[in-house]
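Anyone else keep sequences and structure tokens together like this?

Example one:
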Amino acid sequence: MYSLLLALIYLSFISLGLPDALLGSAWPSMYPMMDVPVSYAGVVSMIITGGTIVSSLNANRLVNRFGTGLVTTVSVFLTSVALFGFSFSNAFWMLCLWAIPYGFGAGAVDAGLNNFVALHYKSRHMSWLHCFWGVGAAIGPYIMGYSLKVKNSWQNGYWTVGIFQIILTAILFISLPVWRKQSQIHSEGETVAHKHVTVVEALRIKGVKQVLLAFFAYCGVETTTGLWASSYLVLHRGFDVEVAARWASLFYLGITFGRFLNGFVTDKLGNRNMIRIGLGIIAIGLLAVFLPINIGLLPLIGLVLIGLGCAPIYLCIIHETPRNFGAENSQAIIGIQMASAYAGSTLAPPIFGFLANTLSIALYPFYLSLFVVLMLVMTERLNRLVKHTER
């Protein structure tokens, strides 16, 4: 049962990543058909993110009432419905409409699965599961690219991923009895009774404010690095557009490959040490990006190092949540953490865009460094507030 459920969770994490890059891949073909400006992709993205934040904040209530298995099943089904909706859309308002269930499905399943894994599986599985999310996120654009090249249809790309999600929904539905049995048992054999904790009540728990700021800062680093890397390399460091784009994509490869490697060492080193190591690698990467040394590969290697450094932080903070705040509070707090993460992903990149436009894009490594310092301060303060022994 343990292995079967773990396989299902791996499959679910792939499905989480599959739709994430579809909009960006398809938008150059979508917006002329919709007769809207290219910037309107941001509107659809913000609606999805808004739905994700709402469902993350309500994940605790939903999981307590219906269980992780059913919430995951319904969430994947909602995502599949939204993808089919996208595939049939011929007007921008329809995309906005289907973006609502798209976001609702993504947030609940993300918060529910992360908490389930944090409670029932070792840290190495959290690393590899998020690595599989990266696999899904990488496969999605290939599916869309194939649909655009061979079928000449972005609609077919959404439809194909929607079919995969429907198949996964059926598999998850059949496996619901396995989820129900496992969800009652803690990894150490203890029964877990999840409490309903409101956002206000959660913020009163020692260390929660610090972990939320750490999540916000982490996602600020990840999304800002990914979005603005090419522009910084081209506009400030003088790289060719194609070289910059190719190396900027390796930032994400660094995250995915780093999470694969983390799975082999994280149980030995512990979550807290992995977070510290990750922050140190990011700092080295930022230094390489910033140094005004005329060595062409240096800032490019720096981007890869930032990706490798990012790899353990997000998932190690999540896995530490039940131990920091108690298994009974973990679902509620992980849901709030997800909301804080999505807020960081939404707000940090456009704020830098404003700074780059009004001041200079050369501020890129300094802006990222502020978030790294905030992460370091908040995670170390959290460690002092919530004391326990590493396994």
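And example two:
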Amino acid sequence: MAHQVEFRLSENPWAPTAVVEEVNARTGSGLVLTGLADQVGGTSSAAYVAWPDGREAAMTRTRTKLSTMRQTASVLNDVRSGGLPVPAHQLVLELHDGYVAVVQERLPGRHVDSLDPGTAAAFIAMNNRFAGVLRDHPQVPRPGAFRGGGVFERTVGQLGRRGRRLLERLLEVDGGRPFRMEGDDLVHTDYTPGNVLFDASGNVSGVVDWNSGAARGDRRYALLAMRWGGIGAGEPDQIEAELAQLTPATRRSYEAHWMVDQVHESVVKGFSPERVQADLARAEKVLG
């Protein structure tokens, strides 16, 4: 059956009706599509579904590997039992087109377009609650930007002379050998207001969209998405105060890796040549 593409303005347009149909056909879940999130950008816009018993859930779609998303589901379900407001992951399934469908608990709260001093403080405090929570999960990898294995060479390195020069600059920033991120914090690699829910009092009620996979390392790395992600600086003094805890060398390495990883992700996700070139130019500007 042909399906309308409901999320036309997503960077990866997709049809939740088709995904719900495939999930139900293969698992007998009986999910019912109840609505679409009002976010129109991004790469993993959420659709709202309901289980046969009435439980509300959110469904997303990701290019992250099935094994990574299963590990993420297990880890988040574990830390959720410790009181962290992350969604229970109820179903993870690889679809026929290679994407992975994720059905997760729908948490209460609302998104905010930008951070004011109160929500910025709550945003930072929530990130700090991720400190050390993965001490018992050594199997969770570092953020993709720090995993090595020649990943960047297969994407950024294939962008011609400029791509190769960018990787040379990254190695120079790291003093000639790859930087290793330390720490056992839970790291959300897309920690932006669009992926955080707030209650009526301005407190965080949920941290959602873990579609890049849960990572282990230094939680402060997640704040770079606010400083460099083009989301809007929010309350920059508060974000800056957190990042100022890093040594200059560590911060420089984090920023460099974050920028190169954006180029890598643009290539992996099949973004337009114009988007890839824009991300490449931004990374070149930051790395010098």
